[in-house]
Amino acid sequence: MMLLTAERTPAGTSYLATGQGQPVVLIHGVGLNKEMWGGQIVGLAPHYRVIAYDMLGHGASPRPATGTDLLGYAEQLRELLEHLHLPQATIIGFSMGGLIARAFALHYPQHTQGLVVLNSVFNRSPEQRAAVIERTRQVAQYGPNANAEAALTRWFSHEYQAANPAQIAALRQTLASNDPEGYLTTYELFATQDMYQVDQLDSIRVPTLISTGELDPGSTPQMAKELAELIPGAQVAVLAEQRHMMPVESPRLVNQVLLDFLNRAQTSENPAKGIVA
């Protein structure tokens, strides 16, 4: 088992780092923390330097100031890279982390070696937007635990939930223990920023992979394909029979997709565009 000790940047960001080689940074989803990446840390660290951190308002990192926007979350990542003396890294963001990864690539292209957006949102339909706004209202009224059971049902297959009750219970506890203000600030951004600087996406000129699960109801294959169309040279990988939390439910499958992309990106400025079923 790989045992890691969390460290902190001068600004208070809590992070884990292991492995050698080109740096890869992992950004978790709203309500979660850096611990969600255990399967990816084990799978990627033999080949890359892997850094996972707690976004603002989550885990052991500080709460975001009131009114913090996506740029503020991207600036947290910039401070982390500066602390680690890393001029560039490949940024891998999951769900809300995918929005932060996109914002980072837009605002800090000089620090972005590659971009991976996993199970993230883009161009929600009116119905999807109304549903997530309603969830935000519930979070504001009842706190981080407001949508936990519905979220777990969306995130995992029934089979995985039944086979891993201890892990599901731990995730339920993680959601419930979030700082209410930090969680709400982050969730409001998650609910409203799926079209963040959409007219600037064609300025992203690094190797890019957009991936989601075939059965992800909130971060759909259509979203992934539409987002990839706006980023020059972006690849799409839709993983068959996978739901939202595919990095946790199917780490070997996700790791293989990530390693294939990362290895190709090492040998090419921009991998050939394509759709992987």
UniProtKB/TrEMBL annotation:
It comes from the Bacteria. This is 3-oxoadipate enol-lactonase. Residues 23-250 form the AB hydrolase-1 domain. Transmembrane segments: none annotated. It comes from Pseudomonas taeanensis MS-3. One of its GO terms (cellular component) is membrane. One of its GO terms (molecular function) is catalytic activity. The lineage of its organism: Bacteria, Pseudomonadati, Pseudomonadota, Gammaproteobacteria, Pseudomonadales.
